[in-house]
């Protein structure tokens, strides 16, 4: 059971000067190079994102290595700085695989404690030359909470042969599964679940893109047919690594959702201020004011929840599972509300596919189930704080 009262220094919830500067630089860069039209254009490319911008983020600003220790080629900052970058990427609807590569895969490697794997892969993640993701970290997808014992019935298994480990089975709806250079796979072994690093080859790993609602976040079915793999970490630490990685992923997704909600609110406020009806701005009508006020209140709650989860992830607090679940609930619901009003209060134009609101609606709907639904998070949260007999996952 987790303590109900937070044990995080309140100063960690405030933005530092460095973080504000990073936010300004990233917002300007995204405004220049990753507008909605650029996003739409790059969705039609084989990789689905602007690879030149990906290289700029890694090389000029160092986003990919913000939370990577200096010994592995990173900047040695914390998750707090990375969360700023994720919030701004969510605001701009940046469609590159930051979440699977820089958050999930990088933190899975760090949490595994496997120095050899970290030295091999983290420098290339930090400099932007390697994309990576995780597979099989949760039943039915990358992190959806399962039953009380998630180690049973794994869809991917590992066998040890004369030349080392090979993987068999399938993992569905893997983030960036069709394009990632490295897959970190949770697979069953006779000694229990372990994490394996697999550099997929076409003859042993078939990857089929899935058609998903949110085209800015690609997913795929990955089928392993004797794919060579290398064990990462120990069997004893594997489940703890998976659980912690997913909670960090939830905190990261919450930061993205806050950024997207902020964009939706700002865009709607700007529109209702300049759109006139009956000789006055529609934003001056009481009903419109109330709806926007509801979004603002929800957004402030989401910012608080995200800031707490970010602080817990930055200092590896034992409160992270509680904070991550709470942030997942409040940020998902806020993003859904903000994007709904984004469409509704734009009137007829908001319902057209050409308007950017639809891309944000799709991102909101996809994100709210990415690491489990709000109801699943509430159930888990109840167990963590002692309101239920045991955590759900």
TrEMBL record:
Residues 242-382 form the Acyl-CoA dehydrogenase/oxidase C-terminal domain. It comes from Streptomyces violaceusniger (strain Tu 4113). Keywords: FAD, Flavoprotein, Oxidoreductase. Belongs to the acyl-CoA dehydrogenase family. CDD domains: ACAD. The lineage of its organism: Bacteria, Bacillati, Actinomycetota, Actinomycetes, Kitasatosporales. This is Acyl-CoA dehydrogenase domain-containing protein. Residues 16-128 form the Acyl-CoA dehydrogenase/oxidase N-terminal domain. One of its GO terms (molecular function) is acyl-CoA dehydrogenase activity.
């Amino acid at each position: 059971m987790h303590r109900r009262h937070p044990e995080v220094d309140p100063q960690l919830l405030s933005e530092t000067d460095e973080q504000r500067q990073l936010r300004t630089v990233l917002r300007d860069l995204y405004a220049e190079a990753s507008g909605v039209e650029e996003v739409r254009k790059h969705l039609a490319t084989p990789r689905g994102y602007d690879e030149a911008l990906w290289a700029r983020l890694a090389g000029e600003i160092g986003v990919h290595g913000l939370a990577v220790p200096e010994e592995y080629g990173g900047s040695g900052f914390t998750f707090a700085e990375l969360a700023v970058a994720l919030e701004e990427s969510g605001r701009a609807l940046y469609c590159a695989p930051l979440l699977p590569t820089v958050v999930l895969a990088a933190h899975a490697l760090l949490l595994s404690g496997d120095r050899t794997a970290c030295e091999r892969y983290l420098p290339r993640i930090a400099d932007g030359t390697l994309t990576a993701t995780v597979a099989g970290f949760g039943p039915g997808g990358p992190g959806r909470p399962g039953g009380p014992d998630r180690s049973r019935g794994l869809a991917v298994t590992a066998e040890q042969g004369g030349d080392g480990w090979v993987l068999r089975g399938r993992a569905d709806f893997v983030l960036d599964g069709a394009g990632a250079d490295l897959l970190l796979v949770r697979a069953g072994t006779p000694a229990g679940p372990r994490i394996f690093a697999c550099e997929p080859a076409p003859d042993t790993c078939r990857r089929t893109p899935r058609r998903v609602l949110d085209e800015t976040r690609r997913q795929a079915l990955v089928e392993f047919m004797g794919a060579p793999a290398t064990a990462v970490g120990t069997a004893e630490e594997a489940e703890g690594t998976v659980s912690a990685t997913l909670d960090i992923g939830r905190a990261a997704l919450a930061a993205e959702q806050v950024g997207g909600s902020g964009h939706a609110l700002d865009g709607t406020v700007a529109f209702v201020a300049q759109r006139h009806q009956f000789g006055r701005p529609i934003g001056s009508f009481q009903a419109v004011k109330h709806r926007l006020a509801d979004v603002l209140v929800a957004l402030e709650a989401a910012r608080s929840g995200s800031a707490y989860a970010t602080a817990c992830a930055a200092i590896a607090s034992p409160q992270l599972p509680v904070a991550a679940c709470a942030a997942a609930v409040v940020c998902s619901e806020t993003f859904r509300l903000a994007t709904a009003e984004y469409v509704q209060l734009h009137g007829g134009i908001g319902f057209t596919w050409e308007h950017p609101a639809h891309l944000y609606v799709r991102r909101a709907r996809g994100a709210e189930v990415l690491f489990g639904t709000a109801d699943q998070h509430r159930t888990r949260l109840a167990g963590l704080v002692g309101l239920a007999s045991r955590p759900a996952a």
